[in-house]
Predict the 3D structure of the following.
Amino acid sequence: MPKLSFILKKETIPILIKAVVITKSITKEIQWPTISCLFPKNSIGNLKKKWATRRIRMGNSGLKLLVDKWRSILVDGIRKEIVTLENVEKLHLSKLLKLWLDHEKDGDINSIKLYQNYEDNKRKYILAPDSRNISAR
């Protein structure tokens, strides 16, 4: 698999954030040297500075939500054999990041577009509760 490479700009900040979340959730530390391989034209100091700014904006709850989302994506990826435990243990960041990016891309395909008017939605779609989200009473 070819290595992913990005130029750090406004549009790629989410990729930096994902890379930080992935490395920190797996190794309990942010692996700046590994992350810097994704952004070869940027220094580690510059990446840390961009991360610090975003980290402050997200807050603890925002970071926790991202970590939870990543863990769910990772477990699903392992279960579907898209990635292996070896990919995780050896921190193959390009492969893990691709898993997350592909998951988001697939989510866009599976989402539906709703109309502003409720009646239009009722006519076009069959609205039914998701049995996976209903707790046993």
Notes: The helical segments are 13-27, 32-36, 44-79, 85-89, 93-110, 118-124. The chain has six helices and no strands. The longest helix spans residues 44-79. The mean pLDDT is 85.
